[in-house]
């Protein structure tokens, strides 16, 4: 049960657009979509991505790090496969 919930969460993260958030999303946490009320603490990341808490921002940083590492690894793998085959 817990694992399926985690999967749903990751699907949600993957569904998030990588581009700039729209004006509307600036009023909600970019990670958990919690509404950011005026006057409440907002944790900004990358200049224009708001989060409701340090935890959410940190989680997004880790997701970005994983994504960047995966992208770099994928590029490297491509090169290795290319060198091995040709
Ligand atoms: Zn949040």
TrEMBL record:
Protein name: FLZ-type domain-containing protein
Transmembrane spans: none
Superkingdom: Eukaryota
Similarity field: Belongs to the FLZ family.
Zn finger spans (FLZ-type): 24-68
Organism, scientific name: Digitaria exilis
Domain FLZ-type, residue spans: 24-68
Residue stretches in coiled coil: none
Pfam families in alphabetical order: zf-FLZ (PF04570)
GO-annotated molecular function: metal ion binding
Keywords: Metal-binding
UniProt entry tagged with the keyword Metal-binding: yes
UniProt xrefs under InterPro entries: FLZ1/2/3, Zf-FLZ_dom
PANTHER family tied to this protein: FCS-LIKE ZINC FINGER 1-RELATED, OS04G0586100 PROTEIN
């Amino acid at each position: 049960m817990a694992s399926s919930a985690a999967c749903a969460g990751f699907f949600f993260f993957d569904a998030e657009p990588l581009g700039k958030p729209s004006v509307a999303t600036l009023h909600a946490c970019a990670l958990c979509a919690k509404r950011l009320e005026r006057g409440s603490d907002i944790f900004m990341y990358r200049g224009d991505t708001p989060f409701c808490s340090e935890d959410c921002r940190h989680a997004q940083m880790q997701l970005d790090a994983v994504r960047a590492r995966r992208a770099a690894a994928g590029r490297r793998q491509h090169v290795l496969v290319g060198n091995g085959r040709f």
